[in-house]
Design brief:
Length: 123
């Protein structure tokens, strides 16, 4: 498995800047790089945005949001540990392969592998 290649930012079409009424500015989605960060960085960024929104609001709602964000982070960390542990198993192990697939489906650490085409029956 190879590390996922960065995706071109669709907000700025990979240019790193967006144009507003008052001129160009760095793209907020990719921070001016033209490429999107990893899925884990995007998730963490969004969690922080949500926490910031609820920071000064209703005490109970803020507590719930902080708890939920910590649970998301904890689950993300656990999945990373599971994915790492599954890498130590033999590549041919079907259970290890399924674990890697399921963890990566959520984490998007690696790009999905292209499906192998079945042998041509006419050949």
């Amino acid at each position: 498995m190879t590390s996922q290649s960065a995706q071109t930012c669709r907000s700025c079409d990979g240019q790193g800047t967006v144009f507003r009424d008052y001129g160009p500015e760095p793209c907020a989605s990719c921070l001016g790089l033209g490429l999107l960060p990893s899925a884990s960085v995007l998730t963490e960024r969004r969690l922080r945005e949500i926490e910031k929104i609820y920071e000064g609001r209703d005490l109970e709602a803020g507590q719930h949001v902080r708890w939920l964000a910590s649970e998301v982070r904890r689950a993300h960390h656990a999945l990373l540990q599971i994915l790492a542990a599954s890498q130590d198993l033999t590549p041919d192990d079907s259970i290890a392969r399924k674990i890697r697939f399921l963890a990566n489906d959520v984490l998007s650490v690696y790009p999905p592998a292209p499906r192998e085409k079945p042998d041509d029956p006419g050949a």
